[in-house]
Amino acid sequence: MSRFYTEHFEEIYDKYSGMLYRLALTHLLSKEDAEDAVHDVFMKYMNSTPHFFGSEHEKAWFIRVTVNQCHDAARRRSVRTHSPLEDASDLCDMIGAGEVTEAVLGLEDTYKTPILLHYYEGYSVEECARILRISVSAVKMRLARAREKLKIEL
Amino acid sequence: MIDKKDIAAYMSIKAPESIKERIIAEQSKKNNRISSIVHGCYAVAAALIVFIAIFAFLPDGKTALYYGDTLIDGNTVVVKTMENPNARIALLSIEEAQKLPLTIETDEKTVVTVSNGSILIPSGEQTEDMGQKIEIDSDTELLWSVELVSHTDVYTLTVESDGKKNVYSISENSEAQWVLLKK
Fold first, then answer.
1. Which of B13, B45, B135, B147 has a C-alpha 20 to 30 A away from that of B179?
2. Global ipTM
């Protein structure tokens, strides 16, 4: 590990860990899995030493790698002891969120991710498009479909 | 649709410190492992350098012959000077055998052979006559007992080890000196 990454690790960790953990937890609905995912993301960061063109590029890298890590973790899970909705309910109870968030957490990842990034993390549609590497219109379409599903659910 | 209370609840989720501690511990272990490997490589390199240095300066198994304290190797040593060269022509001179003090340095099986005379090994106050051939495997002091009679003859002592042969000769030069040299 280069000295740069050793010295800057704590700074980078403090900057992104909260957001990444929130994303991982809301995707995986498991504290242990979320901790593993965030751990793996930072290990990738330190071992692959990526070069960024700016802080936005850096942030997008972290979010994208975290989302991919969550997808991989979800695929690896062979047995679920609870249904996704029960996990979402437990999480919402834990953080004090309401039924809307519970419904969001129950969405499939294609719709959950842009909802979380746009409405919860506060990223613009354009920023979401850059992070997820999809077009602005694709982001808008996914947000619209997510809202429809939530309306039906609620 | 999504109210501020839900957003605040979501934002209240914080990453546990245990993740950071785990990462730091793993990287520290990895750095120690790399450091150990690097130090190991330095140690191996240092040992290799010492090993090479030792063997560069170790004798390479060659034997050496000393006349007294003088190494015979490309130089000539006078072992006897005729006091009256003319007497040899006029009279049949009776020469006593010369007992040339030699030391053979070796660390392997070595055969020493003389063309004339015999090899004597000091044994306390006495000497033991070993004949014209002896076998040694370590540094040995000996006496080459040889009659330096004919000024036209060349008397040889051969030291052979590990298939290599060094031949030393004694002959008379134009200055009526018997000289020992390595052929």
1. B135
2. 0.85
